[in-house]
Design a protein that fits this description.
Radius of gyration: 29 Å
Strand order of the largest sheet: 3-4-2-5-6-1-7
Number of domains: 4
Structural class: alpha/beta
Distance between the termini: 82 Å
Largest sheet: 7 strands, parallel
Helix content: 40-55%
Bound molecules: adenosine-5'-diphosphate, magnesium ion
Number of strands: 21
Number of helices: 28
Strand content: 5-15%
Amino acid sequence: MADLDSILRERFGFDSFRPHQREACETVASGRDCLLVMPTGAGKSLCYQLPAVARGGSALVISPLISLMEDQAGKLIEQGFSAARIHSGRPREESRQACFDWAEGKLDFLFIAPERLRVPGFVEWLAKRTPGLIAVDEAHCISQWGHDFRPDYRLLGQRLELLRGAERGQAPDGARPLSAPVIALTATATPMVQQDIVNQLQLVDGRKLIHGFRRTNLAIELVELKPSQRADAVCELLDGARASRPHESGPEVRDPLPAIVYVPSRKECEALAQQIAENVPCMPYHAGLTAAERDKAQAAFLAGDVSVIVATIAFGMGIDKHNVRTVIHTALPATVEGYYQEIGRAGRDGKPSRAILMWGWNDRRLHEWFLDRDYPPVNEMRALWNTLGRGSIDFESLANELELKPEVLSGRLDKLAAQGGAVLDADGFISQGGEDWIEPYENQRAHKEDQLDRILNFAQGNTCRMLALLNHFGDRDDMTPCGKCDVCAPQRCVLKTTREPDAQEMTVLAGIMERLLQRDNQSTGKLYRDNFEGAMKRGEFEDLLGALEQNGLVYTMQDEFEKDGRVIQFKRVSLTDAGRETGNQLDGAIVLTGAAPKKKSTKQAKQAAAKSAFKKAEAKAEPDPELVKTLKSWRLEQAKSEGVQAYRVFGNRTLNALAANKPKTRDELLDVPGIGPAKLEAYGDSILELLQG
Ligand code: ADP
Ligand code: MG
């Protein structure tokens, strides 16, 4: 086998390997299967291209995106390799020629789209020649748990055996399969997706190389904020005055710009972009804009004409801007993978950068609402399936019958069809499919819920943010804390405030340490009930425990026991080595984050008492009949304009509660039964206006 270093220099023109490339190249060059997970831009392509040259012969590359194929084949040809590609965008003649060239062994690289595997006889034709290796790019597309599932990729698993050529078998040294090795490459795969790829592709003795997820120039900061506080916080941040607080030794992030701000809805996108633009050049970017408007925003950002983009959707995909200093999220993202990709757009130039996530407990409700809409409980899907059982039906009639908005119905149909539960024919009629959809559908829904749990766990976590992310992807490097995030370095945060514990908190903190010194590894619930129940609320106690954990003195672990056939989850807390050393001598050892729980002044206490008395009175209050009438006629108008039934706008219970409690703010609206984030978004402002009038 040729020497990898000289191939790197002579054929690819690079002076040295980037981190982890050598390991991957050696693995594949030696004929071992491999799953390579490294972030975008890490240089994965070289990890199949170089071993392909080292092994000789022709390499087969399966790639899901035409643009990717064109780009890579083009680069290889420039470097003097013979590379061809077969996909729907190429002239037929050229594809035929590529096939012949392949059969004659004239190609160094052949790129094919996964759809080609469906063409009868194609795989058999390819299999006439045993490739030097097979590379599967963007391999997460093969997993239904990945975020870009491509059903055609599934065919790959079945056809790979044939494509690998030569009978499977082991060389005498026992390690090396005789057939072509397979390398699967992706930038985004959780351990579950990784395992799925290994299974689907039947990687032999497959080595998993998962590397490079640590970003050393990124300071991640999470801060709990009420939704109403977030826009001002963003503006303050981008204004630069506060961002100039140093967050590490060495060069500081003095200027927070350029910045990308991710927001959860179009409306917030527009409003926030407008607010920011009062001080800093800024443009919105969301799915409601035309492609031309989005291109314009993107170009302006790239050129530096605007320094802030406020975006709802995958802004930044494929854009090459290296000096983004700040990425802000104004709400909890839907998945950890998405979050990681988005913050990855900060600091590509390697200079210190910030990623700030504002979140709150209620953020989860918005995602749950989307989940219920996009992945309704299985009985609702069954209703749809049953309706189809009465005979094939066109889309409109189905939407009417089920009283579903078209976009909601089409989402559900997609999901049903993907699992074979519905069949769409060419004339637009829909009929019932098999019954096998239920289990995979339920799995998928559970998976989505699991993803929500994970991002929430991440937000609540008390360990180094970077380590938590590495852990999520299964990247086990040296596992040292990053030293920059809000957990590692709370004093250096820009939004999260820190303070010394007050006397009472100090007593409880020391008390916790003392109890743990007496008996380590206790259940947190019992620790609280036995010792601190009288002193403070459970939530405040948990915050203090969290502070001890953040300061590295204790660690907590999930545990469970069974009672009456049910599994009960609880948390245990133990001392770390540092905690045992420090014991209850905590002076100066602890910083708390966030504001102190309000110790009410007499005046505040009086106000609070008055307010809660008011609330109780209101809760019992009869709805104002005039107001109910007004609300009802508003509802009727609204329903008419949307073309839906009145009860789809609001139920009577909600109208009565509105008329009785007369909420004055968006937050108060959320307390009214029947009003969740979506209704708030749709009707909140009109209702508030109406109630004020
Ligand atoms: P990925 O697929 O991981 O997103 P690519 O393979 O497209 O990344 O590589 C990103 C860029 O890095 C490419 O421009 C490539 O030429 C460059 N690159 C890869 N390896 C090296 C190396 N060893 N030295 C210098 N540049 C490299
Ligand atoms: Mg790539």
